[in-house]
Predict the structure.
Amino acid sequence: QMQLVQSGAEVKKPGASMKVSCKASGYTFTDYWIHWIRQAPGQGLEWMGWINPRSGGTNYAQKFQGRVTMTTDTSSSTAYMELSRLRSDDTAVYYCVRDPGNRWGFDPWGQGTLVTVSS
Amino acid sequence: QSVLTQPPSVSGAPGQRVTISCTGTSSNIGADSDVHWYQQLPGTVPKLLIYGNKNRPSGVPDRFSGSKSGTSGYLTITGLQAEDEADYYCQSFDNSLSGSYVFGTGTKVTVL
């Protein structure tokens, strides 16, 4: 079945960078966009951006432009999200999701990666 | 930040019907963008509950239904059950923010 498996939890210092991976299986990786979404502790869901694995094209939420970079490795069906200049309020669970198209919603979701930013 | 507004909480007794609203604007839901709904049980990953305003993925009980009217979407749970206690989020596409995807503020459903 379709599955997205993310890398493990990380602890980072303020000012550092983080890079989360998301390995896809059970479908053709290049046929569907991958989005990244985050959820701070006790808070709601926040969309960060998408990447088209076939073309490498991206679209980032204004809030993260200049700090986020999304990439893919089609040879391993893996997507990556790198966030730089980390702050304490970047502490969150980061999810990758598959996008079957605007009319279909996000499905499936990765299991989430907790990134804690603390000095 | 969220641009879709949901009530922070709704509650109901087992068997009752509850409805969650998701209010957007003319640049998202009102611009004919579909509304999708996700259920997040405590401590778990969000799960797609309703897609394309009113469609249920395979395996989602038929007590969950969705609708859309104007600039708002709605999620209705008919015959509330204890296992429905969770956070619910709506989501849509917004054409005013360089083509951004937006989530609702989230609603906590409590089964009394």
Q: What stands out?
A: The beta strands of chain B are 9-12, 17-23, 36-40, 47-50, 64-69, 72-78, 86-94, 100-103, 107-111. Chain B touches chain A through 27 residues (CB under 8 Å).
